[in-house]
Amino acid sequence: MEYVPLKIGLPRALLYARCRVLWRAFFQELGIETVTSPATDRAIQERGTALAIDEACLSLKIYLGHVAALVGKCDFILVPRVSNYGRHRSMCTRFESTPDLVRNVFRGSDQRFLSYEIDEEMGGRSEEDAFLELGQSLGRPPKAVKRAYRLAKKAEAGHHRERAQKQEQLLKVGTQMRTINQQNEVLLKQALEMVEFDLTLLRSMRQAPETANYNKNAYNTGELLGSSGFDAKQ
To answer: For the segment 117-163, what is each residue's pLDDT rounded down to a tens digit?
Structure first.
């Protein structure tokens, strides 16, 4: 079955770092192209700041800048509404109001927005329910949407495992570096102690008392101890 080609815009901010693998895999399995806004820079920040109220947090201002960068470049821009992922897993209120805010800010444009809602604690709407509804709203059959979500979650799990392995490797390298630094610290301390010993020895040689060395005329030569050796005539 052929579908009308669609392109979904993904703002590179807020939930993007957490959900990008899930989003991309889900839409890809449904045959939908995705486009991501460019990396955050001064232009995006300034554009978002101009669109937001003064009291808005910096992350929200940057998000609006990313949305603005996608306007007119895709069929829909994804702006999810996430209240919580269950008990004691609540999100900041801005994640609940973002869809309403974005639609209001860009109400003068012809851009269409796409959203899904997750509220497991109060509304009983799980992530899976939200994605199934999202896929069907794009004209995909339930069976295909379920399969896409299952494969997307598998891709996400693989991504999390890979990140965990990399973090574990970094921790091991950090532990090794800490051990090496501690060993170097000990060696450096020993080296400094040896230098201090040599300096002390040198100072003691220079400050040694005069010896009772006499010449043939019975005059003291005035030599320092250790400067000319031991004289058997003393």
So the answer is: 988 777 677 889 999 999 999 999 999 999 999 999 999 998 888 87
Please return the burial class of 212, using the count of CB atoms within 10 Å of its CB with bins 0-12, 13-18 and 19+: exposed
The C-alpha atoms of residue 154 and residue 156 are separated, in whole angstroms, by 5
> Which residues, 6+ apart, have CB-to-CB distance to 24 below 8 Å?
10, 34
The encoded tokens of residue 109 equal 């444009």
Tokens linked to 127:
């992530």
Q: Transcribe the chain into DSSP letters.
A: ------EEEE-SSTTHHHHHHHHHHHHHHTT-EEEEPPPP-HHHHHHHHHHS-TTS-HHHHHHHHHHHHHTTSSSEEE--EEEESSTT-BPPHHHHHHHHHHHHHTTTS--EEE--EEETTTT-B-HHHHHHHHHHHTT--HHHHHHHHHHHHHHHHHHHHHHHHHHHHHHHHHHHHHHHHHHHHHHHHHHHHHHHHHHHHHHHHHTPPBP--B-TTS-B--PBTTTS---TT-
- Model pTM score: 0.69
Which residue segments constitute the domains of the chain, with CATH numbers given? 7-165 (3.40.50)
Residues 23-49 have pLDDT tens digits of 999 999 999 999 999 999 999 999 999
Residue 71, pLDDT score: 95
